[in-house]
Every structure is written in C-alpha cells, then in structure tokens.
Amino acid sequence: MLNTEVVKHEFPIFDQAVYNGKPLVYLDNAATTQKPRSVIDAISDFYGHHNANIHRGIYRLSQRATERYDDVREKVKNLVNANSNREIVFTKGTTESINLVARSYLDARLKEGDNIVISAMEHHSNMIPWQAACQRKGAEIRVAPISELGVLDLEKLAPLVDSKTKLIAIVHISNTLGTVNPIREIIEIGHQKGVPVLVDAAQSLAYHAIDVQSWDCDFLVGSSHKMFGPTGVGFLYAKAAHLLAMEPYQYGGDMIRSVSYQEATYADIPRKFEGGTPNIAGIIGFGAAIDYIQSLDRGAVRRHLMELRDYATAGLNQLGGIRIIGNAPDKSGIVSFIIPGIHPHDIATFLDEDNVCIRAGHHCTQPLMDFFRVPATVRASFAVYNNTKDLDILLESLIRVKEFFGK
C-alpha cells in the first residue's frame, strides 16, 4: 500500500495550498500533474549552477549543460525501451509531436483518396492535425466507433484499414473516459496491411510500463507535464527508419550540418528536428520527473489508482442521480460524470469553494460528448498523491451541490 501522506509531502503545493481553511484536493491530473520537489529543484539547480546554451559552446559550462540535456534523451529512451536514443525527438509536448508527424511524415505520403484511421475517443490534438492533413490532400478521416460503455470496437476498426490507409492514430488511455485501448492488437491490425501506427501515450506514461519495441509501434508521443514534469516539454518516439526518411518540421540553428546561401544539409537524427534553442531547463526537469517515475513501484501505483477509481465509482453510485460517462472494464484512474439538471461548470465552481479541483467541460473531446449526448462532463482524475480522504471530501461536496440545486 502506498503511504500517500508521505507522497504528498514530496509535492510542495500540498504543504501550503489552503483555501477557506480547507486543504487542496487536486483531482485534475489528466490535465496536468503536480510537481515533486526533485523536479522543481532540478530546474532551479540548472539555472543557478549550469545555465548555458547547448551543443554550441566549447567552454566547460556549456559542456556541462549539454551533458545534462543529452542525458535526458537516454532517460526517455530507457523509459519507453526505444532501440536507440536517436529515435527520441524533444518537442513542446504531445500536440507538437503529432503535428511533427503530420507535417514531416504524412504530408509527403498522403494523397487524394487516401485515409487516416482514428478512434471516436481521440483528444483534439490527435484529431485536428490529421483532419487538416486530409483537407490539404483531399483524403478522408475514418473513425472507429465505440460502445456506450466507451469501449473501442476492434471488429469495426479492422475493416476501416485498407490499401489506402496511410496511418492509424490511436490513444492508449482516453483522457475523458479512462478507457485503456488494446494497443498491441491495433498495431497488429495496422501492420498486417502495411499501415504505420501512432500511439498517444500522454495519459499512460506516468504509470504504465511502455515498451515500444514489444508493441512495435511506429510513433509514440507524450508530454512531460502529465508525468510530474514541467510544461512545454515532450517527445516523439519514432522508428529510426521513419525519422531518416522525414524532412524537418522547423528550420533554424542547431539542426544543420552545413549552410550556404543557396542550400543546407541537415544534422543527423534526432537533432535535425530540433531547430533553435530548446527548453533546456524544462528538459532537465523532465529528466528529474522520469527519475521520480522510475523510483515508483508502478505496479503498486496502478493498483492504488484502480482502488481510487473503484472507491469513487461506488461513492458516486451511492449518492444516486449521477450518470457516469465511460464504464469500460479495467479503465484507468479517470471518472467522468454528470448530474442531470446541473451544468458541470456549476458543479466545478461549487466544488472550488471546498478547494476541490476537478475539470468540467468537453476535455478537448467534443465529438465524444456528442456521442454521449452531453455538452460536458465533470472529470475526476487521480495521481500517486491522491487518497480516499480526497475522495471523501469530493463526495461530501457533491452532496452539498445536490442539496443546493435541489437535486
């Protein structure tokens, strides 16, 4: 069992965040996670003792900064079990990583009459870049349907993939429903027809052991800030063969080998996709976040999250008059719900008076809201520092919400 009170003290925000005399109950982890002291200290230490630009300076300070930066690429490689750190491209996050693939990989291969397959539960960031690519090329988006439980229908996904399919882009864990998709099976469906597969792992990297070589996925994307790290940092994993065949997405300093006024040759992968000065301190903070994740017993953490999921689900059902949106078996630590007759924004505003932070809205999954015939949901999402005390406060606040609105 996790000692969550000890874990909370590793996160400075919980030591001081009091409102109306009540402690912070942070349940918006699917949007962003809080940061442990080790991550905050790593960023401060870099700026205080090692700050210099990378890959440019001959002086020792720059060399130290470069070493710390490059070390993080190796940490990401080990986290996802990539074959080489050359397959790890640093980006601003999941969204930029997907856009990089859309522009640098897909644009040269997609043509009129082709298609891209996604699921009905995708985040806008794993939908709009493909939508825009299809509009540019005269191609088609095909959407694999889900059930009322929020489960992806593989039998209906498979026929969508044909000789004209240029990519399958699929989320590992839905940020709205908590559904955990069968990624290995989806990759097999794609590869049987020679179709590459991109996996959005933004919601799973913090707690799930991901092995890109075992999965054999072509691309995988993630964001530091959903992994206890800083915002504005993320990565793209791509098989080396894909990266070698792709053109750069952005152009500038540090991504070239030689330049004349007429032409340029680019640096080797992955640096040819990392033009300009990166978020060096953020990436070093990301490295500290990976160290923190690797220090956890992720099996124990996942069991803890499942216990919180079950506790929250049982508590909501006992309150009555609450509809849970997304009831896939073995879903992750995300529970979305509505109280008919009360807008989710009103619920969130009320809960905030009790210092309970939950998300209310469409969660960047508007088509999914349309499928469930709701404008928005309330979403509680859990992390390693949450416990049943947090959920008791949430449930008590919801009782007051229902009383206040006469529900």
What does this structure look like?
This protein has 407 residues and is of the alpha/beta class. The chain folds into two domains: 131 residues, Aspartate Aminotransferase, domain 1 (Alpha-Beta Complex), CATH 3.90.1150; 255 residues, 3-Layer(aba) Sandwich (Aspartate Aminotransferase, domain 2). The protein is 40% helix and 16% strand. The chain has a seven-stranded mixed β-sheet with strand order 4-10-9-8-7-5-6, sandwiched between helices. It is globular.
Major sheet summary line: 7 strands, mixed
State the fourth-level CATH superfamily of the largest domain. Type I PLP-dependent aspartate aminotransferase-like (Major domain)
What is the top-level CATH class of the largest domain? Alpha Beta
How large, in whole angstroms, is the Cα Rg?
22 Å
- CATH fold-type name of the largest domain: Aspartate Aminotransferase, domain 2
CATH architecture of the largest domain: 3-Layer(aba) Sandwich
Give the N-terminus to C-terminus distance in angstroms: 37 Å
Assess the beta-strand content as a share of residues: 15-25%
Kindly state the percentage of residues in helix.
25-40%
What structural category do the secondary elements indicate?
Answer: alpha/beta
The count of domains is 2
Strand order of the biggest β-sheet: 4-10-9-8-7-5-6
- Number of E-state strands: 17
> How confident overall, as mean pLDDT?
96
The backbone outline, from C-alpha atoms, is globular
Catalogue the unreliable spans.
Answer: none
Number of helices: 15
